[in-house]
Amino acid sequence: MLDTRPRLLSVGTAHPPRQYRQEDLIRLYQVTDPRLTSLFQSSHIATRYFYLPEPGPDGKAPEESTGDLLKKHLRGAMEIGPLAIERCLAPLGLKVTDIDYLCCITTTGYLAPGLTAHLIRRMGFREDCARADIVGMGCNAGLNGLNAVSSWAMSNPGKNALMVCIEICSAAYVFDHSMRTAIVNSLFGDGSAALLVRASERDERSFAPKVLGFCSHIIPDAIGAMRYDWDDKQHKFSFYLDRDIPYVVGANAEKPLTRLLDRHNLRRRHIKHWIVHSGGKKVVDAIKYNIGITEHDVRHTASVLRDYGNVSSASFLFSFQRLLQEGRVRTGDYGVLMTMGPGSTIETALVRW
Amino acid sequence: MYETIDYAESGDISTVTLRRSRINVAQLRELERVLDHLEDYGKTRVLVLRGHSDGIDFADFDPREPMDIHGFNKWEKLVNRLERLEKITVAAADGPTVGGGFQLFLACDLRVCTTNASFALPEVNLGFLPGMATFRLAKYVGLGHAKRIIISGASVSADEALRLGLVDRVVTDLEGGITAAIQTIAAGNVVAATLARRLLNESYGAAVEDAIGHFLAAQHRALNQSAFLETLKKERKNS
Questions:
Q1: Structural domain ending residue among the three candidates A168, A203, A238
Q2: Which of A103, A139, A165, A215 is catalytic?
Q3: Domain end: A159, A186, A203, which one?
Q4: CATH value at residue A81
Q5: Residue A174 covered by a domain
Q6: In this structure, what are the phi and psi dihedrals at residue B88, rounded to the nearest 5 degrees?
Q7: For B108-164, how does the pLDDT look when each residue is reduced to its tens digit (9 = 90+)?
Q8: Which of A130-134, A219-223, A313-317 is least confident?
Q9: Could you give the number of structural domains in chain A?
Q10: Angle at which helices B143-152 and B133-141 pack, to 10 degrees?
């Protein structure tokens, strides 16, 4: 029997050209409250990449309206989205005209038609390219997307499915000198990641992990813990992160993981590689101590957080890319992918090389 | 079932006895198997590791072949798994505890021995290294003693081991010593104990800012386990 499970064949990432250190943000937005500056200084993030407006003569970043932010989202997405796609396809010798299914994921800007339509027009995908836009699912969305993309790939063997996570978090920023927005502004960064998924017997010899299964977990009581909703005062959408999120996520992380592994008759000791969303220092700590994995297991999660901040749905693919670049993965190794976000949700996937 | 070790379960206590005094590949594999079993076996709270060990069996190595470092990697992974096992672990020594045996001893939470016991890491004198005892030993005895023990290969008596903090108690009767050690953790909560152990082991390598985050994550896990919530109910009723 042919093995028609989809494989993750290539990953490409991109970020805006301008790099910012945390001190740059403090200066640009003239954060003076020591409670807020300490958030920027202690968040285990060294650098991030953004699309931020040029500072005015006072050295301060000018205010961006909701309209400006939405335009920035699309403009930025059309810059770093195509870059990530090209970097993903090039190693496989594929062109965008080879893509049969395109799935775009974003939470940082609402638009219709969605990013898939804009990317198809910008990059010249075929007109019969099937597409889906996943909008508003937050940091976990990459695995919700991968679940859909993998199913599509599995039912369309040999066809090329491309998933692209594009997050312009700087288009979701509100600077009002409150704790609520400082938590968000000190954490998120802009970035995109593209992943080529295909179920084909011709990939049987390629060194790419097969997707074995997914397991979701939603905590309905914590629906308000992470949300992106309208702030009447600022007249903008504003992201909110409850301070208990790390603990809610930590206390529940074991549930989907155990179900996922049980279903495949595996134990945690069988998992060689952990690709965990770089949600923030506390979230990553909560995962570590609740599922019993080590600092070493989350080394890529931590280094991606340090270098890019939390790039929302794209984060786990940055870690996945670093794992591949490290060159330690061996045939037969199992990996668990884990993302968490609004819902509140924990998404998991099991892969094997 | 096992040839190089004995394994027994009694209530919530499991006991592994090293039957072969020289560590070889077969013993390593059997210890891996027993850890596989224990990791899945929720009934066991306490693991007792006993027997004596003279260290590595050189019969497994062929001087005509290039030395294989991967076997040492497997060994270190095993010791690491023992150190991270979600049971309270008690090591009991009743004779020479040498090389790899000493390393297993260092990976356990509580350590007891009889007056017959002695501890040594002769590897350096033989021209190689005593595994990750180079990482663990100084945490028990301090850098100075660790250097002396590892670099000279000198044997440490039971009394000296007690003085250095390598063992918690020295007894004349091993069975009694094990029983006494287990009694001290009769009320021990495995989740809290193993989280505390992890934080203690990590305390030598973490910045205090990171350690606070780790502590809070671990504390939250401990507070939300059903056993603690039961304790809380009882304590509130009694107060």
A1: A203
A2: A139
A3: A203
A4: 3.40.47.10
A5: yes
A6: -85, 130
A7: 999 999 999 999 999 999 999 999 999 999 999 999 999 999 999 999 999 999 999
A8: A219-223
A9: 2
A10: 130
